[in-house]
Amino acid sequence: MPNLLLTDSCVRSCPYCFAKKHMNDAKLDSYLSWGNLIYTADFLEASGEKNISLLGGEPTLHPQFTEFVLYLYERGFNVNIFTSGVTGEKTFDNIARYLSFLDPAHLSFVCNINDPENTPYAESKSIEKFLAVMSQFTQLGFNIYRPDASLDFLFPTIQKFGLKPALRLGLAHPIPGAKNAHIGIKNFDAVARLLVSNIPQFERYKLFPTLDCGFPYCIFSNEEIGRLFGALPPEGLKFACGAAIDIGIDLSVWSCFPLSTLKRKSLFDFQFLHEIVDYYESFHRSVRIESGGVFDECDLCRYREKGLCSGGCLGHILKEIMIEPPVRTPELLL
Known about the structure:
334 residues; alpha/beta; TIM Barrel; globular
């Protein structure tokens, strides 16, 4: 599913933000135009793609956020929106008035929240207001950027607001060429233990977590995978990291935010979505052939050979490539 940015502005300044480098390099208060929205919708429709995610920054900061969502919805797209849940009064009123009565089969939200102990009171109240109104459309998302993180607050929040029985967990990755808080390779096992320690909570609330890309398969045992994800390993679940196509407000294109400064192209360089996917998948393959995975053991891993795991996030691999002596072909990163 391609991701379309509505704005580069955000209401937060999260230390782990994977879009930090992109937003720092972009103009403030810049928004996707109607023309670029329509061109993108036409491009995706011609490609046979009817799924789209809207993000930013904070997408609800776009002054025509509600109109954009309704336009895509009426064109038959399945629209998924990544938000912090922090919205202004006018935008919230429009969401409640025009979006809360749509079909949840074709409109969904992922509300990425932070630990309430580190969240300002006003922000918490805005999030709660959003969750109360949009509960049937919304699942929670949480980005893990510290190995000592706690998931305890997530479960009662899902129950309190009657949210979708799913929890999207992200692993904060490094941004090659920039600095951000992230989980180092040496702490992957600590994150796995964090998830495993919460198995009783997942079972009690009848939840299955979904993982964003970059979690290595081998940090869990097959038994733990079965209990966490309800899958029968090794065939039932993949920890593969593919090209997540991001489209900027100026219709620039890149492969996921941690890699947003590498191999950047324009949507106008392609005729169909599969061409973009093929272009970035080829880039991913070239890096993984050159450097393998995040662990030395990735080279001989049977899960990687079967395509069940990609060997961890490319952000870790490329970060090392960028600081090592220039012994590799320049074309790898250009």
